[in-house]
Amino acid sequence: MTAAEKHAVHAADFLEGVRVLLVEDDEDSRELLVELLLQAGAVVEAADCAATGFRAFQSFHPHVLISDIGLPDEDGVSLARRIRASEPPGAPPTPLVALTAYTSPRDRARVLEVGFNLHIGKPFDMDALLHSVRSMVPRQSK
Length: 142
Prior knowledge:
The protein is of the alpha/beta class and 142 residues long. It has six helices and five strands.
């Protein structure tokens, strides 16, 4: 990543107006990611489990969803399946990002197969995550 790209990521308007739904059960990770996304200008809704995340998805209408896979009760794979099944036919699907410690090639293939657009392993590079979110949302969608 060039110096200019790193600077752009840290600008307060990098994700201006982009609605991001974050589903992460670890409180410290969730707070860190929310702060990172807010600093980049995103509008953020956060959930600590898949059930709350699914309800938020239906009411918040995010431009991008970032979800952990290892969630309590219902995992991120099941959440992705429910989201994909709930989207109107013919409508563009919401970009889904798996942010997970499950990083084997089999894990990656599994999350992509169920409808995630991107698999990012933990630990992750924060700048790269922000660039990934930005790349998934056309500028005119904000």
